[in-house]
Amino acid sequence: MISRVAVPGLLSLVFSAQVTAGGPVFVDLAAGAGDARIVGSNPAGMSRLEETAWRTGLIVSYSESTWEVSSSELDVTTETDTDSTLYIPSLFYVRPLNERWSVGASLSATSGLGDDGGEDSASRYLSTDWSIGSFTLQPAVSYRLNDEWSLGAGVGVNYTIYSWEAAVFNGIGEQDGEVEVEPDDVNLNYILSAHWAPTERTRVGISWRSEYEPNMKDTPDYRNVDPDRQSDGDLELEVTLPQSVLAGISHRFDNSHWLSLDLLWIEASAFNIETAVVDEGGGITVNPYNLDDTWIASLGWGMDLGPRWSTGLGLLYVDDPVDDDNRNVLLRMDSLWGIGVSLEYERDDGMVFGGNVTWLDTGDAPVTTPALPIIGAIEGEFTDRTNLLFEVYVSW
Question: Which of 82, 212, 307, 363 is the most exposed place for a label (fewest CB within 10 A)?
Fold first, then answer.
């Protein structure tokens, strides 16, 4: 049994440390090259760092929501309240070897997607909880062509894990059973990038990250399900995490203010998502599902408050990768808006302590489906949703 999943990493609430910067979350990604963070998003920018640099950070993602859903076959409407807190660490390192060459490495989460439908929801036979994510070690190198141009490349060693749980219908009046799979895999992808500094104050960056295809399989783990109703063999998942292109520009003004603009394109439309469903017999089937290409834009502004303190603001927009008519109960995504604020303090020895907070509006994500096994047609939407990201970091 094959399930193909395409995951546009930034579209989940498992926001990656790979896509944060030394300001409000999601700003100044491609061009800034202000600290070791640049090795993760644009390795070419490492050439702008004149001495060995480190950065470590922690993102805390908090979300809570109320999901209201009705089922035509079960003739029931449920409200499911969920909340979650995720902790995402990161580490970045850059070392110049000489005037031309620099090397570095990053260790961070690079993609993630998931959904918590709830154990009591009318959609529990589709999924009670699922997630997929990758943690990546990325060694990289950069070469400085001249005073303005640099090139960079890196190899990502990705550990990817997928988890899916669902209820199994055992009959009217009977207690539900459960099924779970949790396959994982390790594989490689690549990043190529360029960095251009036409002036001392203006920088431009672009990077391309290749797709990668973990090949994962696992034997479904059934609980409280008759052995004769269990699916035979392994569930195989051919997972494709799509390629992406990141481009950005940043400029620092004479009055110590700065502006940045970043655009990220993810080729989600090239892939299918086949969502697993437990049928009436207890077996697992898959349904095809498609995404549209996705655009993500961020605008950042910052200023120095004095010789030690600085602050910044950021705006974020994520285009909805799912048409309203095609939105899936297991992938309840909508367009996204965000706003963030940051604060930094720099000591005499150059060590920087920073933090930021970002509020996200992730939309209602209304869903209407055709008739499905056991539960019939589904209609649902989020009636309440809160999403906050907190980041703290140290660079030296």
Answer: 307
